[in-house]
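Lab notebook: predicted structure, single chain.

Context: the supervisor wants predicted structures on file for every construct in the current expression panel, including those that have not yet been purified. This is the next one on the list. No modifications to the sequence; it matches the entry in the shared construct table.
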Amino acid sequence: MRFAQLFLMLFFIVPIAHVLGQQKKYAIHTVAFYNFENLFDTINDPNTDDDEWTPKGAQKWTTKKYKQKLQNLSRVLLEIGSSENTNSPTFIGGCEIENRGVLEDLIKETNLIDRDYGIIHFESPDKRGIDVALLYQKKYFRPTTYTNIPLIVYKKESLNKVESGEKTDDSLAINYYNNRVFTRDQLLVTGFLDGEEINIIVNHWPSRSGGEKKSSPFREAAGALNRIIIDSLQQINPNAKVLTMGDLNDGPYNKSVKVGLGAKASKAEVLPFGIYNPFEEMAKKGLGTIAYRDSWDIFDQIMVSQSLIRNDFSSFSYWKAGIYNKSFLIQTSGQYKGYPKRHSVNEVGFSDHFPVYIYLIKEVQ
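Prediction complete. Output recorded below exactly as produced.
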């Protein structure tokens, strides 16, 4: 191993006494996901429904507000996972992103510019023009292949009648010639993390527009597509290390996650080629990343393949997970006191979601 590579690996080494019951040293990387909530620039795109996010639109979205949004997001991204890892996340999956330009502006923020993040992004067919993307620190990760995989789903019944209690600002776009529902692609990235191959899928599954039950088949299809992608990776390499993350618009207990993807809440339940979801236990404890009518849910999740939970820390393995819900991200007054501090016309907030994260660690001899 070259000296420079060795130096980079050892730069973020931490002693973790309670991993295996004894004092050892581990290289550690944080993997995060954050719904950026309407990260739009101020320029009107005639090909998408972004009129609301312009200076003359409903949000009165000015350059000043846009720059404040970038500053707010960069603060969060710098600090996610900092309780165990002083470095900002090596990987950041994101959604509700208008275009590559807003990501380029984001990684140039003072908080992030010295981290030298790379960008992997594709335009999606979403009606509002919002996409998913992956940011990664170039000094640790070298991408080798990446592609966007479309979710092809069709409307089978009317979604115009909204179910009681359901509300979303993310409406489904439908082609009324063939009833195809246009939603976000799934982003697959493969590359080498400090010399080890890692596969990452970034998701933003179809919304609950029209109601949870009526729209559930779309998210079930998204979960099934996720499973197909993972199966294809495992057919090529039975020991493929796979992380899938995103705003799923469903909780860990919903059919899209439990059946479509086949995720398990307990490591002991995960069979070879299976998927472990550490956020299901958090949901059972009443924790959440998003709130509606004082009810919390965990739509934002990061799950890992069985190959990452074998307790063999001679290569990178999953350690633990968390929800980043620091006090500065929480609304302190008004109708939405206690909720994530989202944007309003009068105040530039952060997001209506809390970000989530996991740690990958490897023993250093």
